[in-house]
Specification:
- This protein folds into three domains: about 120 residues, Phosphorylase Kinase, domain 1; about 170 residues, Transferase(Phosphotransferase), domain 1 (Orthogonal Bundle), CATH 1.10.510; about 110 residues, Immunoglobulin-like (Sandwich), CATH 2.60.40.
- It has a six-stranded antiparallel sheet with strand order 1-2-3-4-8-7, covered by helices on one side. A five-stranded mixed sheet has the order 13-22-16-19-15, covered by helices on one side.
- Strand 7 and strand 8 form a beta hairpin.
- The protein is an alpha+beta fold.
- The chain has 13 helices and 22 strands.
- The chain is globular, with a radius of gyration of 23 Å.
Length: about 475
């Protein structure tokens, strides 16, 4: 069975079939010492979602009625602190609508604990990917991974927050090869703080020295997440993270990657990782933008999409995903490494950014098809969605406010988003004639939808063949 089909056996997990109103638990897809992640079916909107339950197994146990109770009264303070932190994290994540950040759909309290409903993401964690497909990781793969990952971290930083828990098991690589930065682990860190157990709170090798300090809040900054990201890249390049930062402070035997010169990696990339892993915060890049410049890699900017893209009512029926932590035994059937793509076949997510930028700067008309046989979730512009049949394809359509849209001879009442100028059609299998009534005439586009995919249509030039 592939990773997307593997169900986990986790002690104290809710049984399959348990209902939270419209949400029905199907199976367990992840779990650890502080929470359990379930795959669930939303009967109301007919889609698969993920549900994360706050369940610190060392502090509470599951009763026969499925509620949680403390193992000891002395755990009350720790449990409550972790619960409050879990709630605050859900509220924080819900403020973002960024394709590279975990998207919270709903939050509620029940069974003496709290739950977070999120989108259901495809693929596996970066940790599992490295374990299963180490040969697929090279500089080209890393360079294509970085721009959307930089963009996600940058969105957090620009909003005034730090992640503080960037590591391989907190980065999900979807089937479409786009990364998603998973939860902040706030409950785990809060419990670790109160119990004075830094080994619970921090991941050795990925946490910089300022996170071990008693006054760490004052010393942490954007450079803290940059160190952790440098440790992620260090691990991908040579197979293991750097030594624990506390040990490095006593006696630093860190070998510069630029001097080790592992085969297949350029000196600028290796030197950038070395700088990110500097012990002194002031010697590291002070922002994601500065870090990206060292690689000569762009930071994906999707700000104009963040406020207008929302989940559509139906996800693809054959998509599978994990929101939260994956099991270490994740074993996908075959690798799907990042590869360079041409203009007409861009990796999903980056295609829209590239097309929008090109159209805005050069005023060109573009028609792009993106092959995406297993998209994790379909997205649409809120209030501007016209669904025709059971959705099979996403068609982003450039449309001016004074233009009228007709599909297969029938007018479709849509308005383009005021920021991006695009509206979205969810189209079923079939052939469509799209007529855009413009001031100087009618522009006609013929689309044949025969399998899942994503189209970007910018009228003005003939469709390339």
């Amino acid at each position: 069975m592939s990773v997307n089909e593997t169900s986990m056996s986790i002690p104290n997990a809710l049984p399959a079939g348990h209902r939270f109103n419209e949400f029905e638990i199907k199976d367990v897809i992840g779990g650890g010492g502080f929470g359990i992640v379930y795959r669930a079916w939303d009967h109301l909107l007919e889609r698969t979602i993920a549900i994360k339950e706050y369940m610190p197994a060392s502090l509470v146990m599951r009763n026969e009625d499925l509620t949680l109770s403390l193992r000891s009264d002395r755990h009350q303070k720790l449990f409550t602190a972790g619960l409050n932190s879990f709630i605050q994290e859900a509220r924080l994540l819900a403020r973002f609508n960024h394709p590279g950040l975990l998207h919270v759909l709903r939050f509620w309290e029940e069974n003496g604990t709290a739950y977070m409903g999120t989108l259901y993401y495809s693929g596996m964690t970066l940790k599992a990917w490295q374990h299963c497909y180490p040969d697929a990781i090279n500089e080209a793969w890393i360079r294509q991974l970085l721009p959307p990952l930089f963009g996600a971290i940058n969105a957090i930083h620009h909003a005034g927050y730090l992640h503080r828990d960037i590591a391989l098991d907190n980065i999900q690589i979807q089937d479409n090869q786009l990364p998603v930065l998973l939860d902040f682990g706030s409950a785990r860190k809060e419990i670790g703080n109160l119990s004075d157990e830094t080994e619970i709170m921090l991941k050795p090798g990925f946490a910089p020295i300022e996170q071990y300090s008693e006054e760490s809040d004052r010393e942490q900054g954007l450079w803290t997440d940059i160190y952790a990201l440098g440790a992620v890249l260090h691990t991908l390049i040579i197979g293991h993270p750097p030594a624990v930062s506390v040990v490095r402070c006593i006696e630093d035997h860190y070998q510069l990657l630029a001097e080790l010169a592992p085969a297949g990696y350029s000196r600028p990339l290796l030197a950038a990782v070395d700088r990110a892993l500097a012990l002194k915060p002031e010697e590291r890049p002070q922002s994601i933008e500065e870090f990206a410049l060292l690689f000569d890699v762009p930071v994906s900017d999707v700000q104009e999409l963040i406020t207008v893209i929302t989940p559509s009512p139906r996800a693809w029926p054959d998509s599978a995903a994990v929101a939260g932590q994956q099991t270490k035994n994740d074993t996908p059937s075959s690798p799907n490494p990042l590869t360079a793509r041409t203009l007409r076949r861009l990796s999903p997510g980056r295609w829209l950014l590239s097309a929008l930028t090109l159209a805005a700067v050069a005023g060109l008309a573009i028609f792009i098809y993106v092959d995406n046989e297993k998209p994790a979730v379909s997205r649409s512009y809120s209030g501007n969605v016209s669904a025709i049949g059971q959705s099979m394809a996403l068609v982003y359509l450039k449309l001016n406010p004074d233009e009228k849209l007709v599909v297969n001879g029938k007018p479709v009442a849509v308005q383009p988003d005021h920021q991006s100028g695009y509206t979205l059609l969810n189209l079923a299998k079939g052939q469509y004639q799209i007529d855009i009534h413009q001031q100087d005439g009618v522009h006609t586009q013929i689309l044949k939808i025969d399998h899942p995919g994503t189209w970007l249509v910018n009228p003005g030039l003939p469709v390339p063949h």
